[in-house]
Amino acid sequence: LRFDMTVFVRNVYGNDGDAIDNPNNLGGAGWSLLAWINDEIDRRQPWKITVAEDLQVNAAITRDTSQGGAGMDTQWDARFLHPVRAVLRAANDGDRDMEAIRTAIEGRYYNGDALERMLYTESHDEVATSNGKRRLVEDIDPGHADSWFARKRSTLGAALVFTSPGIPMIFQGQEILESIPFGDQNRIDWDKYDRFRGIHDLYRDLIRLRRNWFGHTRGLRGQGVNVFHAGSDKVVAFHRWDQGGAGDDVVVVLNFANRGHPGYRIGFPRAGQWRVRFNSDWSGYSPDYGNHESYDTHAEAGSWQEMPFSGNVGIGPYSAIILSQ
Fold first, then answer.
1. Rg for the chain (alpha carbons), in Å?
2. Beta bridge partners of 252
3. Cα–Cα nearest to 311, from 277, 266, 252
4. Is pLDDT above 80 for 174?
5. When you count CB atoms within 10 A of the terminal residue's CB, does the N or C end of the chain come out lower?
6. Confidence category of residue 10, pLDDT binned at 50, 70, 90
7. What is the layout of strands, in order, in the sheet containing 2-3?
8. For residue 164, is it left (φ>0), alpha (ψ between -120 and 50) or beta?
9. Closest by alpha carbon to 241, among 319, 118, 324, 117?
10. What does pTM read for this prediction?
11. CA-CA-CA-CA torsion for 135, 108, 320, 302, nearest 10 degrees?
């Protein structure tokens, strides 16, 4: 259950400040109400999740009520949304800021817990006609939402959502490249499910990896993250882990440029064979994708990008690959 604009529940002017003592706070009533609701949910149905649309980078929203917080389970993280969308919609590769991507991935864990932030590239507000906003595919290539560029870069954003630490969220129709803005009278065009079945399958595969469906990507459910490479060639690589080890450690490589690499050297946390579990350039996702060879690789000893081992990977343009042992 998402709580709409909790900042106005706790502050009459809808701006941030000290969670408890700000004179604009509604006499503490807003905080008390949120805390009471969340305590009741935790007592009666503790498996339920409450989400704050607060957008003020306030850790107290998701802090436990016993520590003076509002007790929400997680909150939308606009610090991920806005820089990621800016990078994806930039017309020129040279304008893509990889340090912004690094910051979005590593983020700031509210109260030390990655799952207290919710990651997304679309929400009802960000794609609403009433706000003058557009779906991400329209933002990337206006008037050509089904183009190669719109498909490649929007799904690169999906890979970021599902592999970065946090709770992933997609908006209705993203998995079938819906380009119609959100509005009360606008319906999902379900014909797109048949037209873009491959893109739907790409989202399905990302969801399965995020859930550790096959037992070899547990790290995507964990707290650990290390963005060990964010290069001027627009390639970002990071390590995800829970407890670490085979079946747990995951390495994600993202290429934000319209140029593939037959052999790109990256760091690895462990030696041995690393298998490609996902390649967004696979032609099964779209027949006009390049099917760039992203081969299994062997990591050997030798420090690289501040990692203890390294190996070569192949990656296509505007593509993501996910590797694990």
1. 21
2. 238, 322
3. 266
4. yes
5. N
6. confident
7. 2-3, 51-52, 74-76, 117-119, 167-168
8. beta
9. 324
10. 0.94
11. 170
Q: Measure the CA–CA gap between 155 and 236, rounded to whole angstroms.
A: 15
Closest to 21 in 3D by CA, of 75, 74, 68: 68
Residue among 116, 113, 101 nearest 238 (CA): 101
User: Cα–Cα distance between 324 and 253 in angstroms, integer?
Assistant: 12
- Residue 288 CA, chain-centre distance (Å), reads 25
Amino acid letter, residue 14: G
The pLDDT of residue 280 is: 98
59: tokens are 């850790």
Contact by Cβ (8 Å): 163, 252: yes
Task: Output the six-digit token pair for 23.
Answer: 């004179």
Residue 298 and residue 288 in contact, taking contact as beta carbons nearer than 8 Å: no
Report the side by side order of strands in the sheet with 320-324: 224-230, 235-241, 250-255, 320-324, 272-279, 297-304, 307-315, 261-268
Q: How far apart are CA 170 and CA 177, in angstroms?
A: 12
User: DSSP 3-state assignment of 25?
Assistant: coil
Provide the token pair at 301. Answer: 């000893």
pLDDT digit string, tens, across residues 192-216 = 999 999 999 999 999 999 999 999 9
